[in-house]
Write a structure and sequence with these properties.
The chain is an all-alpha fold and 426 residues long. It has 17 helices and two strands. Strands 1-2 form a two-stranded antiparallel ribbon.
Length: 426
């Protein structure tokens, strides 16, 4: 006979034994199936959400003919791509040409498996962690696997034997290598505070103190900008650059292989948003002692819903930025990564490490209000110095093109000469 629902909801952690090997295996398989299914459905619906949000920003309707409110538009698009004919360039390297879309898509899915998305779930068979693979080196796993996605894009450009596709692949490799370094450096202050690379420990550290976005604001801003570049989203979509490279690295792809690159892009958006939430916004934690035993089913549901809300907010932010900012020039993109973000990340590591060492030496307990308040005050000062003294209102200074007076005069003389020649012809 099944236990009553109320009794199941009130199961406490100390009364639960760790799950046996068989229970752990079965729970892992169930989590894989559920997470993968929800992940793919979410990615499909995000294609509709992007079109709806862009229509809302541009004051138009967007998809509204297929299904109620256009809800079946992703299914119609998927069916169309499955039914379309596959084309292969005559001079392409076919094995790599076919493998490239999968190499771009698979790392986006693998990185999600180490992100905790809710508080532990109590069951009659033990306490089940709400993460597919609770690795003790979860963050290092994400850095290693996510970096493999660039191989799919580079191979797609090279194997197509198309010069525009090759340029797109080369751009992507240079861009991702540049911003991966800044992204990795920006998270070192997070690891210094948590004292561990396990994502579960990072969530618990924020639950016991304050969210890292308050104490590590500059690290969050660097991570946010780098995440846009890593996912090839505007204003960093130089690898595609439709107006310059004829769709870039996937110019020769068609049908479902073409769709795989877009599925990978949206999957990377979801993963990057979830990672931002985990590292800087408390993960699944809800302020107010939701991170302590006894664990209940209601806590698991509530924390999972709050994690999904925070993740979808950043996905919306991705879409909002796409329809707001123009694309960078390539020299601006590279200058931003190497001349601003990387030096800023390295200097910030030194400042935060010194502050943590000083607070520890002064006997201030980590997680206390004094410790968090000191980091918060330090970050307010750093952000004020960066924005109001160094950057002086330009937000992203490498993207701000300043010409000296001589170049301005040359451009004016050239424009005047061009105007005179035009008048002479008329």
């Amino acid at each position: 006979m099944m236990p009553p629902v109320h009794a199941l909801l009130q199961i406490a952690t100390p009364q639960l034994p760790p799950p046996s090997g068989a229970v752990y295996l079965i729970a892992t398989v169930i989590k894989m199936v559920v997470v993968f299914s929800l992940y793919m459905v979410t990615v499909a619906l995000l294609t509709l959400a992007e079109r709806k949000i862009s229509a809302w920003i541009q004051d138009r309707l967007g998809p509204n003919r297929v299904g109620p409110g256009g809800l079946l538009q992703p299914a119609a698009d998927g069916l169309k791509n499955i039914m379309k004919e596959e084309t292969y360039p005559s001079a392409a390297n076919l094995p790599l040409f076919v493998l490239a879309p999968a190499m771009s898509f698979v790392p986006a899915l693998l990185t999600w498996c180490v992100i905790p998305f809710a508080s532990p779930l109590p069951t009659p068979w033990g306490l089940i962690d709400m993460v597919v693979a609770p690795l003790p080196v979860g963050y290092l796993f994400i850095l290693a696997v996510s970096s493999l996605g660039v191989y799919g894009i580079v191979l797609a450009g090279w194997s197509s034997n198309n010069k525009y596709a090759l340029l797109g692949g080369l751009r992507s490799s240079a861009q991702m290598v540049s911003y991966e370094i800044a992204m990795g450096m920006s998270t070192i202050p997070v690891l210094l505070l948590a004292g561990n690379v396990a994502l579960g420990d990072i969530v618990r550290q924020q639950a016991n103190g304050m969210w890292n976005v308050l104490g590590l604001t500059v690290a969050f801003l660097v991570f946010l900008i780098s995440a846009f570049a890593e996912t090839n989203r505007l204003p960093f979509d130089l690898p595609e650059a439709e107006s310059e490279l004829v769709a870039g690295y996937h110019a020769e792809y068609s049908a479902m292989k073409f769709s795989m690159f877009f599925i990978a892009e949206y999957a990377n958006m979801v993963t990057a948003s979830a990672l931002m939430v985990t590292l800087f916004f408390g993960g699944w934690d809800i302020p107010g002692h939701w991170d302590v035993a006894p664990w209940t089913v209601w806590k698991t549901v509530a924390t999972g819903a709050f994690f999904a809300f925070k993740t979808l907010f950043f996905v919306f932010f991705y879409m909002w930025i796409r329809w707001t900012l123009p694309r960078f020039r390539y020299d601006q993109l590279m200058a931003l990564g190497w001349k601003l973000l990387l030096p800023l990340s390295l200097g910030y590591i030194v400042v935060i490490a010194s502050a943590i060492l000083g607070l520890d030496a002064a006997g201030v307990a980590r997680g206390s209000w004094a410790f968090g308040g000191a980091l918060l005050g330090l970050n307010v000062v750093i952000v004020a110095v960066l924005l109001f003294l160094i950057d002086r209102g330009r937000l992203i200074s490498p993207a701000y093109s300043r010409l000296d007076q001589r170049n301005v005069e040359k451009l004016r003389a050239l424009a005047a000469r061009s105007a005179l020649m035009t008048e002479g012809r008329n």
